[in-house]
Amino acid sequence: MTALATPAPPAAARRPARPHLLRWLIRLHRPALLVWLGSVVVLGALLLWLGGPLTDASAAAWKQYDACSWSSRCTYDMDAIGRYKDWYTYTTIAVLAVPFLAAAWSGAALVSRELEQGTAQLAWTQSVSPARWLAFKLAVPAVVIGVGSGLLVGLHHWAWAASQGRIDTAKHWYDVGTYAANGPATVALALVGLAVGVLFGLVRCESLVSLVGALCATAFAWGALAYATPYLWPTATKISSLGHDRPAGSGIVVSQGLVTSSGARIADPHCGPVTDQACRVVYHKLDAVSYFNEYHPQSHYWPLQLTATALLLATAAALTLAAFRLLRRRIDPAPVRRAAAV
After folding, report:
1. What is the C-alpha separation between 164 and 81, in angstroms, rounded?
2. Most CB atoms within 10 A, among 191, 286, 294, 330?
3. 201 & 227 share domain
4. Distance (Å, whole) CA 211 – CA 213
């Protein structure tokens, strides 16, 4: 006897196979992925070069300079000092540009272009729900951008730390560019740029408009974060003698000035030390007895960075939630049915 073959179900009853979203997403955005990976590799290599050979050469030149006896001819490698300074500036700017690149690409290509060209609607007919489509659109780039930007920030922090105590003109931790490029808040800001680009792409299905909107929103977030940073953590206060020409304590300054004999705080006229006769008269008229300085010392670096990172991640989560709700409103057929019924 021969076994009967089980008849195949009718074509209409077959459930269409779900496409492999990850493969589809990589294929669709392969050029951007290759550019991003290439940028991370090149910039990472430059940061390794900066923190290694360039730092060593500049530190050796500064050692020669500090040992100079100006009574005789002084020789030191001035080019090494200038080369380190230039490449530190270039790499810092490149790291700080990552959130804006993420926002520009997200706004121009990730969502808006597919909605504009109709490929998103085509994907929704291939057994891919709009929510699942958007989830992949956000999750995969978030991992790629987060890992890449995190690597660059870590390398920048390592390169900066290698210069401390060795290069006289090395940037302090509280320098605006250095502070931002050294910490995880920049990684979180890149995720905000990704989320805001997707949101603009859903609001306006026009690539150019979404690109400009995402860049402006990311720039606003960066400016708001820079303004709010000094107030994210309680400050330290240092009282110092008027014998110095400025208040003691270095870091992110919130407020500086003079303290009177009654304990009141007034503005600093920036006269100089009390040992100067003219300044002594000025301070006497103001009834000033000491300086005060409200600031963030280096020990506040991680509390400030982690607080800022948490706020940015919460912002990215809120933007993501808004994107899913907006997508649901765009595809919800209920209003159409209600209009037809009327």
Report:
1. 14
2. 191
3. yes
4. 5
